[in-house]
Fold these 4 entries.
Entry 1:
Amino acid sequence: MKSRLFAAATSITALVVLLFLAPFTAQAQDTTIKTKQQAELLIPRPALQPVKSLDPNAAETLDTLDTANPHIKILLLSDYSWKYYKDADYGKDIAEFNEYWNNDQPDPYHVPLDALQDEIALWIVDSLCGYRCPHQGEVYSKFGYRHGRRHQGVDLPLKTGTPVYAAFDGKVRMAKYFRGYGNLVVIRHENGLETFYGHLSKILVEVGDWINAGTMIGLGGSTGRSTGPHLHFETRYKGYAFDPQWLIDFSSGTLRHRLFVLKKKHFNADSKYVPEDEQVEIDILEGDTRDREEAAAKAEAERKALAAAQYHTIRSGDTLGAIAIRYGTSVNKLCNLNGISSRTLLQIGRKLRVK
Ligand SMILES: [Zn+2]
């Protein structure tokens, strides 16, 4: 037994030696090992290791640092940069993820519009929240009225099976088939925004998942009320939809704002996105019109007041108090109308405006 083991070990050693020598003694040893496969049968090789990415931009984490928030760490990366890392419990106590939360209604809020502020400043991305365009392409059907129905988002045509990405970090609130939306994913974000991804052919996330911007949440398709494969994408705040193009330029895939001021008027169906400089011009024009109207109204009021003005010529013995009583006004009003004080000496013959 021992000798057989010894013999086997010897022959394996011999093979190893032969393998090394093979290139040099190929002809002489030709009959011993003919193929690589034969050699592999005799000399086990270590299991294949997964090939590491050769992406030169892919930095590895070298170290982690704590921050004041126990759920946020700072990762130090091998390319001398750093980034924040949020753990699984981050966001658990953030009110946005606990209020009005359900898994089967597109609008769980039912908040009256009056309850919202006229202008809501929203940080769209910051050092803790990233962005990725859900699907880059031309907007085929815009936000607003369409065939008499309100279209709550934008339609982006795509091929069935195209990956659809989460626009921002957040938590999955809905992931199911829902009426006209077909397969629908709704993600709520930290700033209170919600994004909707409709007509998916496949949903790849589950309710309650915490996801980062750029996570593939599903594949594009044509489920639900849809005439062809496209992504129906919505942005909502407290249940109210606004034109996603205010935030995202879908044709270039870029985000328009880091900080976005959402205005209540954006919730109107006719409040389609207008390019920034155009909007600035509209605002200026509207402002000008308003200023002109206000100035005209003010001038008209002054003209009317002047037309209705009454004067009193001061005579000997007149006092402001007596004049005020006579014309049914007050000393204060008389002073304001004439730019005088109650102690101003009243000169006889001077005209005093009383109304
Ligand atoms: Zn649509």
Note: Residues 2-42 form one domain.
Entry 2:
Amino acid sequence: MLKNKCYCGNNKNINIVYNEKIRSGSYGNLTKKKHRILNCKKCDLTYLENPKEKFFYETSEYRKKFNNSSTIKTHHKLHEDRLKKKIFKIGEKKFKKKKVIDVGAGAGTFLNIIKKHSSQTIAIEPASFWHNYLKKKHLTFSYADDLIKKNIKADIVVSFDVIEHIDDPIKFLKDIKNILNKNGVAYIATPNYNDILMNLIPNTFSQFNFRTAHTLYFNEKSIKFFLKKAGIKKYKINYYHEMDFSNLLVWLKDKKPSGLNKLKIFNDSFEKFYISYLEKKKLSSHLWVEIKR
Ligand SMILES: [Zn+2]
């Protein structure tokens, strides 16, 4: 039996679910050594053993990619469509005259889009090399603790694709609750470990899905466990699928990622049906958590 403590505190019944090379950076780049991915029977969290790149966003490799304003523009473009879909899911009107915090704001792409509706935009971003860009448009902090000390709260808190990088998910969730106004709502999206591709082609998809940058791999059971541990009682677990049917077929056909609309066979109504079906079946790419104070 493994003597490896899970993030929930349990150190019994920890199983190895994967012990191969994992992704390091973009598709096609693998680690030199094998890495173990573990699963805790108690909370059902799956996690990377001994993560070395805990703060990937603070590494010089990552920083080098964004050393001038044209690459910042490219960065915004790259993320804009995905974020607009998430804003659509929340409902654009919800941001009207609201104070909004983005936890793990990156270059502020999300906050830039909703700034015109909201009354104030606040970025929390630990990677300080983004701060010069962020400060031009948003109130900017490194950590949630900085806001908690000043008693700054917001009506809407979002955190997209961040919690899977975190080494203290309980504190992370507590912090989110603590920066929410009384009637506020927080939206957290994180990859769903029970994604359709992990179900259909676990061997092929695992080498892509498991990556040095992601420490934690949540499913519904484990995210609920951590929400409870963080003292969060009012929450809803929903599902959110980011990829299309074309992407699924290319994975099955060529065993590799293709991005969106690669096959150009399926129309919007077909894709909408596929996506809502996966979300209903809880097989989507992401878990979508809504938290109230
Ligand atoms: Zn656990």
Note: The chain has a mean pLDDT of 93.
Entry 3:
Amino acid sequence: MPFSALSAALDAARTDITVFFRDDDAGWADEQLTTLLDIFEEQRAPIDLAVIPQALRRELALDLCVRRARSRSRLGLHQHGYSHTNHETAGRKCEFGPARDAEQQLKDVKAGQMRLRALLGRVDPIFTPPWNRCTQATVSALRAASLQVLSRDHGAAALQLEGLQHLPVHVDWCKWTSTPAPDWGALDQQLALAVERADGSEPLGVMLHHAAMVDADWQALRELLGLLHDHSSVRLSLMNELIVAQRCIAAQQSAIPI
Ligand SMILES: [Zn+2]
């Protein structure tokens, strides 16, 4: 049982845990993406795809639209940067980093938004920056483009969100399973730790990168989804459902009692 630590953490949790899966880089590696989506369909589990606008072609867009229609609200689609290009000449890779000012960032956000809408129709108002990195100028660009949610890593540097919601991921699957050798025990421990830390206070986000996943990942992913699906303390959710729920709670809390 590769997820024994996670299973024990879930059994010990005092409150229910909401879990979402965000898979990045849709538009690349279609074959692995198809495998990933088939597994989530088989397991009847929800999955959010962060789609690279410039990499999305018509054939994949059509497949995603058909899958979304038959998924009974178990497939979410949102924007992952524009072209997934690193614009920094030094330091860590960023598409929406300090090398680009607010105007340049807004241009790319809007171009990506228009392309996704043209190819996919409905797109969730969520933005995942490539490499999980962006700047304060990105926040302004997202607001100007009427996007509502920023999704990065939970440890990312703090930004003034100016009304945007933040829906971070907590566990990077591929950090523990890619070369030189997968460490399933470490992944299990990270998931267990994330459950203990979340303890019902915020949704637990798991980040996947289908392009880096191989047969052993698919088998482990099936087992993880089976465990989460069957556990009475777990609720699997789409990111957009969480946003709607949070907004509704905020509206109720600010409403005048009647
Ligand atoms: Zn990416």
Note: The CA atoms of residues 136 and 158 lie 9 Å apart.
Entry 4:
Amino acid sequence: MKTSPILIIGKNAKTGLRVEQRLQALGYNTRGVSRSTSPAFDWEDPTTWRPAMEGTESAYVTFYPDLAIPTAEQTIRDFVALAKEVGLRHVVLLSGRGEQGAERAETVLANSGLEWNVVRASWFMQNFSEGFMIEGILNGELMLPAGDIVEPFIDIDDIADVAVAALARPELRNRLFEVSGPRALTFAQCAAEISEAVGYPVKFTRISIEEFLQALREEGLPKEMLWLMNELFTVVFDGRNSKPTSGVEEALGRPATDFSEYLRKVMASGAWDRSGLLQTA
Ligand SMILES: NC(=O)c1ccc[n+]([C@@H]2O[C@H](COP(=O)([O-])OP(=O)(O)OC[C@H]3O[C@@H](n4cnc5c(N)ncnc54)[C@H](OP(=O)(O)O)[C@@H]3O)[C@@H](O)[C@H]2O)c1
């Protein structure tokens, strides 16, 4: 009997990509969707949801831009209702630590009657190499509205491993995995470790939230993303998430990946290689 594909919402997203690659390597049939796929899936256009979801029974779901935004709870409520209608039975939801809005969305899923998992993650290490901080690293200066607060950044390869385990192993169903890396670091400490790995200086400069938001405004970031950045740096990043958690170990029976191993992988990938930039400068 042909098994139905596993739906991945966020095909090109940092974790979605990795979850799909792992599932395919294990021989699962997958259907990765986002706004640029066919069928498309757009969180802002619910008419796209049904065609993308029909014929699937389990899903890995990443919300965009973040479950912390005020409309996320209702969107997840609508999504879960449709999931039940189309015959989806199991949903694994990526969430963020310490975000009240995200916790409300998690509760909607956990009380839905669907089988569920929540992977509630700390800040991604890959924000430094695949996200909004890569430019700062390449320019040699990371300017952020953050001081002495520490964060146990997580390697998203670990998130993908946990999500795949949740999809593949029925005994893990109906559980929340709060996942983080093993070591809590300030952004300044991350910059110092990155400097050592890349071999060029990466300075950390603390700026005010107003300066940070103004710079993002000048880059043309839309209003809702400015709201989100403000929320993440002023509300969520207040020390509430500073303790490392054991979710990776609980799901996988092995420790979470350290920042040093993440650095080794990024160096091997060439993502922070500035030689091309310097030659054309
Ligand atoms: N970054 C972190 O540190 C962190 C920590 C904890 C949790 N999270 C969670 O991780 C999730 C993804 O975060 P991320 O910043 O890492 O994102 P990301 O990987 O940068 O994902 C962006 C992807 O989302 C797709 N997308 C954009 N708008 C969409 C829409 N309206 N509908 C459907 N797909 C859309 C885009 O693909 P297309 O252009 O093809 O649509 C794009 O490839 C969020 O739910 C966030 O809360 C992030």
Note: The mean pLDDT is 95.
